[in-house]
Specification:
121 residues, globular, mainly alpha, 5 helices
């Protein structure tokens, strides 16, 4: 077992990245059907950037699971996916030097949840 992942940190971050990837895809899909000035475009970009943040926290050799094979994620709304991702951040050891930027991810997720709720998701 990888000693750095003994507490499940990398798997937790991988799950967060997976949830954010699915949420971004769903929001962008909705944005494609919306008007050009729809706030869904901003939300989609924010979720995509949060996905990038989560992925950047992972070690270079960490392999994310294949998103396309998880049909269960497609049944959840973007708000549900964002909320679940935020809940997964709660036990992360953000005091560790390799996760120092994780605090910003948590703040961004809370902002995205607020924005998604405001848009009726």
């Amino acid at each position: 077992m990888d000693t750095l992942n003994a507490d499940g940190t990398w798997d937790r971050l991988g799950s967060i990245a997976l949830l954010l990837h699915q949420a971004a895809n769903q929001v962008w899909s909705d944005a494609d059907r919306a008007a050009a000035d729809s706030p869904l475009h901003d939300l989609g970009l924010g979720v995509y950037l949060a996905h990038s943040q989560a992925s950047a926290l992972l070690p270079d050799d960490y392999e994310l699971p294949d998103v396309d094979e998880d049909a269960e994620l497609e049944e959840r709304t973007p708000l549900q996916l964002l909320t679940e991702a935020e809940e997964l951040t709660r036990p992360l050891p953000l005091h560790r030097p390799d996760l120092v930027h994780g605090s910003q991810l948590v703040v961004d997720l809370c902002d995205l949840i607020r924005e998604a709720r405001g848009l009726g998701y």
